[in-house]
Amino acid sequence: AKQEAADTEQKYNALLQEELLKEAVEILKTMETDSKKHQRILREILFTIFSDTFDDLPDDIPEAETEPKSPEELLEELLFTEMDDITFYRNLLSAMDTHDLWELIFEIITDKQNHTAALNHLYAKYMK
Fold first, then answer.
1. 22 Cβ neighbours under 8 A, 6+ residues apart
2. What is the DSSP letter of 53?
3. CA-CA distance, 98 to 126, in Å (whole number)?
4. Cα(2)–Cα(104) distance, rounded to whole angstroms?
5. Rg of the chain in Å (alpha carbons)
6. How far is Cα 82 from Cα 115, in angstroms, rounded to an integer?
7. Which residues, 6+ apart, have CB-to-CB distance to 109 below 8 Å?
8. Is the dihedral of CA 11, 16, 19, 21 positive or negative?
9. Reduced 3-state DSSP string for 21-49
10. CA dist., res. 114 & res. 120, Å (int)
11. Is residue 46 within 8 Å of 53, Cβ to Cβ?
12. Residue 43: count of CB within 10 angstroms of its CB
């Protein structure tokens, strides 16, 4: 989940560079900022559960270099990632036997739902 949040932040940053989406900069900045917040929340959750944030673990093996993705591909990829993340965090929430972390997980789920709606709007508006 931590790696996914970092990857998502990078994808939002890539979309911020796209001329086609310049009118949507504030929306994209909000989602990028939320991804940073999710990384912080996930560190807090990990520390609460394990007394460690696991920040010293190596990152996943980097993927092979690929051609830059189009704005359409990035929007589509992010839309599906956000929807998958909602399912993941709902499952995580239902697996929690204590309610101590529910508020943090609800916050991530709510953000992900908002991101899904915004990405759907951006895709419909700019990718005709």
1. none
2. -
3. 43
4. 14
5. 15
6. 7
7. 86, 89, 90, 93
8. positive
9. HHHHHHHHHHHHHHHHHHHHHHHHHHHHH
10. 10
11. yes
12. 16
Q: Cα(27)–Cα(8) distance, rounded to whole angstroms?
A: 14
Residue 97, Cβ density class (10 Å: 0-12 exposed, 13-18 middle, ≥19 buried): exposed
For residue range 18-61, list pLDDT tens digits in order: 999 999 999 999 999 999 999 999 999 989 888 987 887 665 54
Write down the residue that tokens 């932040």 correspond to.
Answer: 9
Task: State the sign of the Cα–Cα–Cα–Cα dihedral 99, 100, 104, 107.
Answer: positive
pLDDT digits (tens, 9 = 90+) for 56-107: 766 554 554 567 789 999 999 999 999 999 999 999 999 988 788 999 999 9
For the chain, how long is the longest CA-to-CA vector?
A: 48
Q: Is 59 helix (H, G, I), strand (E, B) or coil?
A: coil
